[in-house]
Amino acid sequence: MSITIDGKELEFTPGQTVYEVAKANGIYIPVLCHHEQLKPVGACRVCVVEVEKARSLIASCAMPAENAMVVHTNTERVLQARKLAVELLMTQGHHNCITCESSGDCVLQDLAYSLGVESPRFPEPAEVKAFEQANEMIVRDMNKCVLCGLCVRACNEIQVNQVLDYTGRGPTAAVGPAFGLLYENSECVFCGECVRVCPVGALFEKQGRFQGRASDLEKVRTTCAYCGVGCQMDINVKNGKIVKITTPREDAPAPNYGSLCIKGRFGYDFEGHADRLTTPLIRKNGELKEASWDEAILYIADKLNTIKQESGPDSIAGLASARVTNEENYLFQKFLRAVIGTNNVDHCARL
Questions:
Q1: pTM to 2 decimals?
Q2: How far apart are the C-alpha atoms of 276 and 270, rounded to whole Å?
Q3: Fewer CB within a 10 Å sphere, N or C end of the chain?
Q4: Is beta strand 48-51 parallel, antiparallel or unpaired with respect to 70-72?
Q5: Residues 55-81: what's their mean pLDDT?
Q6: Phi-psi region of 339 (alpha: psi -120 to 50; beta: other; left: phi over 0)
């Protein structure tokens, strides 16, 4: 089956949307409310295209491709419709890019620039809402929310926490926990999925605020050390300091595909904490003293050997950690069983 987009005849698989076919073939169609891991809804109308013989413009992210369909993505009619949609989104709240944490990494900002929107023709609402920042992890600035629903759908479809939804109608419409509760008073588990998918500056990480914008930060891909799943994440570094943890909004790698738990996304301040141990400690005369790794290993080996000789191998037990690799955990249990001679070995993930 084939479809023609901007004069190019393209093959597609039944079930693909017009947007998916275009993206797979390098044809750019802007999106704001769309996410590859979520069901398409066509809410923002930024992705509209013109289809020959169709009466109105269609949302390409939600329209299934059909055989012999002829699509135009950059006609004057399409560009004017997208521009109007972006203007309406901009005037829905207060988008102050000067102090916005997402400046330089904002889908709405990029769309306004690419479409040449100098200033919206419609007035902004009079009310300026206060930040919601009582918790230590997520700040909500509802002045910048464009009601795209990505946070709602990500919470319900990806994480299945079902904490967020729409509240109110018309000008009072908003997204958030039921009954207008704050995050910290709801059943939110602070996984940060809503922060990841937010295309504007309505949701951002509290610890990383004013620590650096996207262009100031170096992203280093690494594996989360909190458990053995192997979640991939990007450490955002500025001047040798971890500023925040992010994951790609789309095209995120396995096994977590961009999702993290509360520890993986927000629990990184231990890295530079003043109380963090950086050298082994050995207790001498009742006091902990710094030692070299060779000294510490020899000390442990001597103590284990003494206990084994005096009380037998079953007097020794080992507790493995979820914060090391599977290979290290295998070696640990092998050491307990084959070297020490005991089966008294367990893993902290079972506790």
A1: 0.85
A2: 7
A3: C
A4: antiparallel
A5: 96
A6: alpha
- Tokens 């996304």 correspond to 265
> What's at 308, amino acid-wise?
K
- pLDDT-based confidence at 301, cuts 50/70/90? very high
Tokens of residue 159, six digits: 């994480």
pLDDT of 77 reads 97
Closest of 87, 77, 67, 93 to residue 10, by C-alpha: 67
For residue 351, the model assigns a pLDDT of: 59
Please, which pLDDT band fits residue 80 given cuts at 50, 70 and 90? very high
CA distances 106 to 65, 208, 215, 333, 351, Å, are 29, 16, 12, 48, 42
For residue 337, pLDDT over 90 is answered with yes
H helix runs in 48-124, sequence order: 76-90, 107-114
Nearest to 80 by CA among 69, 70, 88, 91: 88
285 near 271, Cβ under 8 Å? Answer: no
Token digits for 58?
A: 């269609």
Number of residues in the chain: 351
Rg (CA), the chain: 27
C-beta of residue 304 within 8 angstroms of C-beta of residue 316: yes
What residues does each domain of the chain span? 2-74, 213-276, 281-350
Q: Which helix (H) or strand (E) holds 138?
A: strand 138-140
Whether the Cβ atoms of residue 312 and residue 305 lie closer than 8 Å to each other:
no
Q: How far apart are CA 49 and CA 76, in angstroms?
A: 11
Q: How far apart are CA 43 and CA 30, in angstroms?
A: 13
- Give 282-307 as a 3 state SS string: EEECCEEEECCHHHHHHHHHHHHHHH
Query: pLDDT tens digits for 88-143?
Result: 999 988 998 999 999 999 999 999 999 999 888 888 888 899 999 999 999 999 99
Flag whether pLDDT at 302 surpasses 80.
yes
Query: In this structure, which topology does domain 213-276 adopt according to CATH?
Result: N-terminal domain of TfIIb (2.20.25)
Largest CA distance in the chain: 89
In the chain, which residue ranges form alpha helices assigned H by DSSP? 18-24, 76-90, 107-114, 150-153, 193-197, 262-266, 293-311, 326-334
Give dist(CA 179, CA 299) in Å, integer.
59
